[in-house]
């Protein structure tokens, strides 16, 4: 028996003219035939989920490290929540849901152990060799470091998925090719020379909704985790009028509700308000500019998927709340100090003696590597570590390892 492609339902999706069309993709660096059962962007999403990098996210820090408890978000659960919000936004705006979900699922691949603390420490150690950037590292993972296929390194994602990965937060270069926020990370420049990712333009609307979904997800779940940890209290939430109003609404409707349910009722209302705000703003922008294709979105010179001015102010207030009471809390800062020490010590140890690396990550013979190549290979290896692996490795190599709780 053979598959009837016309009966599979791919053509039933009512995508808007400005959405990315999987059947009109700019293709992959290494050309491949089409699948009989999945669209091009579905295959991207599926490949992302089956990577080693995706599985490692379950043991990488979001805010609270694994030792703090099983119920806190990790990079993996954060990523899944971002993908859910991105897909909801994509459906409402008649975009390609699979592409939006794929960009959301891959957006944190390049994060080091211990979250942004590990990234900052690794960036400092790599300063003489082009620095370290988690978006650029995500690109290295999916184009080089994942080795699953016989015919190519990486997972050979489509141009649209890679563009979304690299530019979901906006263009990287101005019209002259100069970096907008400092030098463009070298791994991105190197790949774009082979497979031009249009670094001067905005990304597709699918990538834009993945980016704003990231903000919505962590603004909400970091409050949830903060309340669970005790670093936040309901009284502290009253510092943000928007959250105070949500608590008043829930309290009036459900008097005496237990704390866990009360928290969830606040969070679900917060997500709904933010999602609906982004949809309304995006629809207004689309109505005003009337892009007739995905490329017109890229060349519009602005972001379509964003918060309204009112919600942007709420977003700013929530971030201030989180920075004040969680991210910059003395206890968290002390843990971050220890985590940075672990990453720094491991980097120095591997540079001094690359043979300490048990599972060879080297792309070339160690003896043939320049100092810059050696440092990049060490950075690749360290960035791939989970929190627990980095912690245990440090305990094995050093006499004293900082306590991370």
From TrEMBL:
The keyword Hydrolase applies. Belongs to the dGTPase family. Type 2 subfamily. Keywords: Hydrolase. The keyword Hydrolase applies. It comes from Martelella endophytica. SUPFAM superfamilies: HD-domain/PDEase-like. HAMAP family: dGTPase_type2. One of its GO terms (biological process) is dGTP catabolic process. Residues 75-219 form the HD domain. InterPro entries: dGTPase, dGTPase-like, dNTPase_2, HD/PDEase_dom, HD_domain, PHydrolase_assoc_dom. GO terms for molecular function: dGTPase activity. This is Deoxyguanosinetriphosphate triphosphohydrolase-like protein.
């Amino acid at each position: 028996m053979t598959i009837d492609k016309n009966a599979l339902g791919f053509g039933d999706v009512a995508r808007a003219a400005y959405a990315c069309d999987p059947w009109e993709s700019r293709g992959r660096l290494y050309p491949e035939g089409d699948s009989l059962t999945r669209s091009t962007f579905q295959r991207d999403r599926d490949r992302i989920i089956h990577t080693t990098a995706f599985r490692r996210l379950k043991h990488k820090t979001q805010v609270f490290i694994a030792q703090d408890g099983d119920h806190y978000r990790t990079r993996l659960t954060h990523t899944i929540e971002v993908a859910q919000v991105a897909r909801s936004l994509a459906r409402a705006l008649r975009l390609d849901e699979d592409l939006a979900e794929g960009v959301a699922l891959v957006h944190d691949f390049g994060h080091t152990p211990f979250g942004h603390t590990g990234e900052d420490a690794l960036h400092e150690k790599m300063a003489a060799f082009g620095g370290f950037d988690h978006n650029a590292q995500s690109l290295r993972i999916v184009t080089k470091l994942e080795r699953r296929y016989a015919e190519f390194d990486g997972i050979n994602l489509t141009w649209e998925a890679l563009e979304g990965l690299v530019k979901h937060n906006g263009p990287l270069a101005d019209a002259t090719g100069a970096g907008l926020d400092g030098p463009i990370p070298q791994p991105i420049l190197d790949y774009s020379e082979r497979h031009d990712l249009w670094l001067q333009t905005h990304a597709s609307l699918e990538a834009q909704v993945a980016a704003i979904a990231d903000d919505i997800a962590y603004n909400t779940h970091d409050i949830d985790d903060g309340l669970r940890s005790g670093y936040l209290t309901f009284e502290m939430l009253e510092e943000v009028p928007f959250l105070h109003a949500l608590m008043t609404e829930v309290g009036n409707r459900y008097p005496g509700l237990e704390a866990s349910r009360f928290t969830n009722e606040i969070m679900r209302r917060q997500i709904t308000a933010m999602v609906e705000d982004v949809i309304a703003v995006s629809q207004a922008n689309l109505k005003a500019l009337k892009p007739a294709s995905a490329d017109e979105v890229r060349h519009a010179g602005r972001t379509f998927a964003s918060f309204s001015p009112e919600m942007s102010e709420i977003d700013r207030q929530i971030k201030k709340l989180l920075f004040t009471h969680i991210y910059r809390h003395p206890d968290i800062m002390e843990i971050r100090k220890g985590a940075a020490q672990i990453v720094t010590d491991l980097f120095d140890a591997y540079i001094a003696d690359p043979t300490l690396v048990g599972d060879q990550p080297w792309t070339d013979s160690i003896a043939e590597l320049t100092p810059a190549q050696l440092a990049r290979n060490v950075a690749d290896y360290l960035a791939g570590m989970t929190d627990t692996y980095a912690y245990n490795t440090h305990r094995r190599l050093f006499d004293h390892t900082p306590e991370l709780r």
